[in-house]
Amino acid sequence: MRNQENNTNNRMESLDGLRGVAALIVVFTHAMGGLLGPFSWHFITGISHEQKTILDWVILNSPIRILFAGSSAVTLFFVLSGFVLTLPWLMGKQLPYRSFVISRICRIYLPYLAAMTLAAVFAFTLGGEKIPGATDWVNIYAWTNKYSALNIPSVILMLGNDYSTWFDNPTWSLVWEMRVSLIFPLLVIPVIRWGLRGTVAVGLGLWAAYTLGTLAAGLFPAAAAMIGQPQNTFYFAMFFVIGILMACYRNQIMRITSLGNGIGSLVLVIAGAAVWTIKWGFQPELMRAVGAALILAGCASKGLPQRWLETAPVQWLGRVSYSLYLVHVPIFLIGEYTLHLILPHSMIALIAIPVALATAEVFYRLIERPTHQLGRYLVKRSATKLGMRVSAEIG
């Protein structure tokens, strides 16, 4: 498998842009809760399927729905992570496990911790009371939760439980990104070595672990809830495996999508977007993963989608995408708590979008980029120490 993929690039700029677009979709999804009022948040997220207004119908039953497919965009993050993390393995440039974990801690955990600290400060300062007329997302799922002595340890340990995620709701997905990173070599090695057979074996193993974990969680529900339902690690790891498999067969995918002077890539993206906009009555999470795979395949191949994703504005969006993902909800909530007496909730949501984009740039410069640099320094230092140790042993 590796020999077949020896020309795989370690960096694909179009995928950076794709990550940025997905992050913006998540922002639009959360903003929509403020734009359409309390009822529509339930409608958008699938909790309710009853339509109240013509605007509801247009947004939920037209192609514009893709702009508010936040759950699908998060699924794309998982598939995309599996794809991107596999590329160094295909080139024989994978990091030693210790260095890989250090890199992921600096890439994911440290910016997460900084964002959660800032969000907690504002939550403790501004939150606590319900806001008249605000959406359920604000008044139930966000800064009106009860404070507890378990808040701080839950955040620091990245447990992803009810004591931590309410500070900054999107961070629930980062828990799975970090946990799956810890077992990533166990996922990628069988797929690279044995292809589809390895994929099936890994998939069955993950499903078995998820099933057994779910049974155990049912026996000890309080403990499972406290540590963030760890069995779900194996569930979300399956989305990573999809990305791993796609990376291994990337050349074959590109040969197909290059047909018709790259028209195939555009067709795949449109097909994936269509899958995302359909209301699936059966296995909606699986269908979101299928849509994510189609979109990823189209954007990783030469064609119009790739060229658009490599334009400067989209590349900037990709560069700050993680920061945007981390800061946009606190920005929305700060706006709700400070401006709700003087501005309509819809206006607050609209204003919050450009403010979140600007804040993401600041957060990237002050927090995310320095932690990346720290990660590279620590990885290089670890590699140097390892080389010195090996030289000493040989000598």
Automatic annotation (TrEMBL):
<feature type="domain" description="Acyltransferase 3">
    <location>
        <begin position="13"/>
        <end position="359"/>
    </location>
</feature>
<feature type="transmembrane region" description="Helical">
    <location>
        <begin position="233"/>
        <end position="249"/>
    </location>
</feature>
<dbReference type="InterPro" id="IPR002656">
    <property type="entry name" value="Acyl_transf_3_dom"/>
</dbReference>
<dbReference type="GO" id="GO:0016747">
    <property type="term" value="F:acyltransferase activity, transferring groups other than amino-acyl groups"/>
</dbReference>
<keyword id="KW-0472">Membrane</keyword>
<feature type="transmembrane region" description="Helical">
    <location>
        <begin position="21"/>
        <end position="44"/>
    </location>
</feature>
<keyword id="KW-1133">Transmembrane helix</keyword>
<protein>
    <recommendedName>
        <fullName>Acyltransferase 3 domain-containing protein</fullName>
    </recommendedName>
</protein>
<keyword id="KW-0812">Transmembrane</keyword>
<feature type="transmembrane region" description="Helical">
    <location>
        <begin position="174"/>
        <end position="192"/>
    </location>
</feature>
<feature type="transmembrane region" description="Helical">
    <location>
        <begin position="204"/>
        <end position="227"/>
    </location>
</feature>
<feature type="transmembrane region" description="Helical">
    <location>
        <begin position="347"/>
        <end position="367"/>
    </location>
</feature>
<feature type="transmembrane region" description="Helical">
    <location>
        <begin position="108"/>
        <end position="127"/>
    </location>
</feature>
<feature type="transmembrane region" description="Helical">
    <location>
        <begin position="261"/>
        <end position="280"/>
    </location>
</feature>
<dbReference type="Pfam" id="PF01757">
    <property type="entry name" value="Acyl_transf_3"/>
</dbReference>
<dbReference type="InterPro" id="IPR050879">
    <property type="entry name" value="Acyltransferase_3"/>
</dbReference>
<feature type="transmembrane region" description="Helical">
    <location>
        <begin position="64"/>
        <end position="87"/>
    </location>
</feature>
